[in-house]
Amino acid sequence: MSLIIGPVVESDLPSICEIRELAFSPNPCYRLLYPLEVDIAAAKLERHRQSFFASQDSPMAKLYDAQTGEIASYCHWTKKEGDFEVEKRTPKSLTAWPEGVNKALMDQFFEAIYAKTEELMSGRPHFLLSILVTNPKYQKRGAASRLLDWGVAQADAAGIPAYLEATPGAVGLYKSRGFEETGRVDFDLGDFGGHGDYSMIAMLRPFPGSNETPE
Questions:
Q1: In 25-142, which ranges are continuous DSSP H helix?
Q2: pLDDT (tens digit, 9 = 90+) per residue, 11-34?
Q3: Which of 61, 174, 81 is nearest to 126 (CA)?
Q4: Rounded-to-integer distance, Cα 134 and Cα 72, Å
Q5: CB 3 within 8 A of CB 65
């Protein structure tokens, strides 16, 4: 089996959405955001189309089987200038949340994460990893690492750091590639109909050889 990296095309979107659902379904925060009993497949397709196909300068990438075309993992790396007045990373730039999602959690979750990004990265050019998802069939087989290394190489070539927000279970992978924890966003899922606390961890990988250190 030969896995290669290539751009995601629009015909991949149904597979992308299916992989995302399979990969994140066990995540308690994701399950609150998108309740199982709500059919929002069409809305997810449209949000992916808007989110990741709006700019041809930074297309999504996939790791896929060269023979079958099956997608093992996909990601979205974007070069950011750190000018948050010009380039707002905000859910308000997309369509309204679809009916059936947990809108209160959606608003707080994304606004808090985007605010943390602005706090840490304003005025600092960087490569942003906004999503990295692996097909459960390919987990623990190096698929995510391939796309992570691919993006980090772009950041290194540009001489700038790489930044991301990690789910708790992915922190170890990112630390193995030189990312360091630099902040976190905490949520009480009980405020939104769930149970327990949940965190997203801000992580920065300084450009090798620079004097920059995570704050």
A1: 28-33, 41-53, 103-121
A2: 898 898 889 889 998 999 988 888
A3: 81
A4: 6
A5: yes
